[in-house]
Write a structure and sequence with these properties.
The chain is mainly α and 96 residues long. The chain is 80% helix and 0% strand. It is built from 4 helices and no strands.
Length: 96
C-alpha cells in the first residue's frame, strides 16, 4: 500500500503541474484576445456597453459609492489591470 502511494503521489504532483501550466497558458491567451478585441472596438469607434458583464459585487460597490472597493473587486474577480478596472468602474459611475 505504501509503495502504491509512493508511486501515486509523484504522478499526481506532475499532473497538477501540467494542468496548472495549461490553465495559465489559457489565461494568457484569453487576456491577449481581450486586448485585441478592445483595441478593435476602440479603433472602429463601436459603442459597446458591457456593463451587464460586470460582476454584481462591483455594481453593489458602485451603488454604495465605494469606487475603490469596486475597482478592487473587479480586479480580483476578472484579473484585470488597474487601468482597465478604473475605466470600467468610472463608466459604471458615469452611467448611474
Amino acid at each position: 500500500m505504501v509503495e502504491l502511494l509512493g508511486l501515486l503521489f509523484p504522478s499526481l504532483v506532475v499532473l497538477y503541474l501540467v494542468v496548472n501550466m495549461q490553465i495559465n497558458a489559457y489565461r494568457k491567451r484569453i487576456r491577449f484576445l481581450e486586448i485585441k478585441v478592445n483595441a478593435l472596438i476602440e479603433h472602429t469607434g463601436i459603442e459597446f456597453d458591457d456593463s451587464t458583464l460586470v460582476p454584481v459585487e462591483v455594481h453593489q460597490a458602485v451603488k454604495a459609492g465605494n469606487r475603490l472597493k469596486a475597482i478592487r473587486v473587479y480586479r480580483k474577480i476578472t484579473g484585470a489591470g488597474l487601468k482597465e478596472a478604473s475605466e470600467v468602474v468610472d463608466g459604471l459611475i458615469k452611467n448611474t
